[in-house]
Every structure is written in C-alpha cells, then in structure tokens.
Amino acid sequence: MQTSSPKTSRVAVTGNVGAVPPKPEEFKYIRFRIEGEVARLTLERPEHNMLNERMLSELAVGIDSLEGRGDVKLIVLDSAGQSFCGGIELGEYTPRRAFQVLDAFQRAFTAMLDTSKPFLVVVNGPAFGGGAELAALGDLVVATPRAKFAQPEIKLGVFPPLGAAILPFIVGPKRALELVLTGEVISAERALSLGLVNRVVPEAKLEATVKEMSEQVTAHSGAVLTMAKKAILGSMGLSLRDGVRQSMAVFLNELSGLEDSSEGLRAIAEKRSPQWKNR
User: Fold this and answer.
1) Do 167 and 30 have their domain in common?
2) Which of 25, 57, 112, 171 has a CA 20 to 30 Å removed from the CA of 64?
C-alpha cells in the first residue's frame, strides 16, 4: 500500500491552492500514479490523513485529470499510514478560512461523485467523519478488520452533510439516522452487513484482493463500464418504472453506439475474446 513507483507525484509546493489548483506532479499529500489501466491515489498526510484544503484540492484535481483518459478504466483510492482518513482538519483554520476548507471539501467530493470511471476505495484503518464519507462514495469498497467507520460530527455540534444525503441510499433511512444521530463507531464486519463495504479481507490478503478486483473490472471495455455505472447511479432515487426507463434510455441511445458493443457481439458469434477499443 505504500510502495512508490516511477510515476509517483510527491513534489511539495507552497502557496494559496485556492487560487491556483496544484498539478498532479506538484501534489504534496496525494500520491498519484498510473499503473496500467488503473489510476491510484493514495492519501499520504501523517499521522491520520486529516483532510486540509491542499489535500482536498489535490484529490479533486487528481480525479478530474482522469476524465479524458480512455486508457484509465478504474480509479483506486487508498491510504498510507495507520489510518485511512480521520476527517476534515478544521482546528488549524480561522472561522473565515474554514469556509474555504469546506468549499474544497465539496469540490473533492463532487469530483468523486461525478467521475464516470468506476471508483474503488480501500480502507485499512479508521475512517471517521469525512473519511467515512470518502468510503461511502466509492462504487466498490474493500476493507480489512482494522477498518472502523464513524460519523462523529453530531458530537461536535454539527452533522455530516454528505453522509446525511448518501447513507440513506446505501443503508436505508433508519440505519442512516442511527449512524448520524449517535455518532457510533462500527466495525468493518458491521459495515459489510450494512452494505457500506463490499468485502472484508485479512490485511495480508488486501493487496492481492485489490489487484484481483482491479483486473476483474479492467478486463472489460472502459466505455461500457462508464455506461453501466451511469445506468445504475442514474436510476437511484427514481421509481422502479422511471428507473427502468432511464436505464433503457442509456442502453438504447448511448450504449448501442459504442464500437465495443458491436465488437462484443462479433466476438460471441466468432467464438473469440473481444478486443476492446474503449470507445
């Protein structure tokens, strides 16, 4: 999880990142690299990966920079250190500056929510507050028994704005209310039972599991992966009838025009493996 690579970006810079967002090669708190068809972003701000304005800006820029890249089919977000993410660090900011941090927070989470690429989050340690919201936004989430999740904002006199909106879709309103109103810490196994996590694996098998899941996803057409994600998330919040119409509209009006859809059908007829062009 902490292995560096030739494409790792770890150049520290200073300045007001609110004015000029950092470029991936200038990242200080996010380790950014491309590994084949997978883009990997690692939270790297000792000791608990607390989210400050700079880190949030880097996360947003890193995700947005991948949107036009047809060669990248999957985004993986993981962490270095003992914690996945302890949430937003507001203690170092004045009340006036705190609004800038919250604005950066919104931009980062909007980038995660809006990306067309499948997003895999790897949680190997506590994920509290904004860290738990990061995990909740993952399309796929893998955790180890070391992972713990909590939305403790209620204890500080506030509530998690993204968690309040996202959790009901994932765990249902009753469970969402329980998690937000109590601020309780839950284990990886309970997160799995609630649907917040897809898999819980031993720490020794974490990297192998991430590799396996990455290979399972990237074996398919990148363009079709995008359409599948759009159909699923675009149907959320709709009635069953409207959700089916939404999914069928994507299938008939957008998917059918892809070269890879035709290639998949030809490959079946010719009894061979498809050769994806990701378009």
Assistant:
1) yes
2) 171
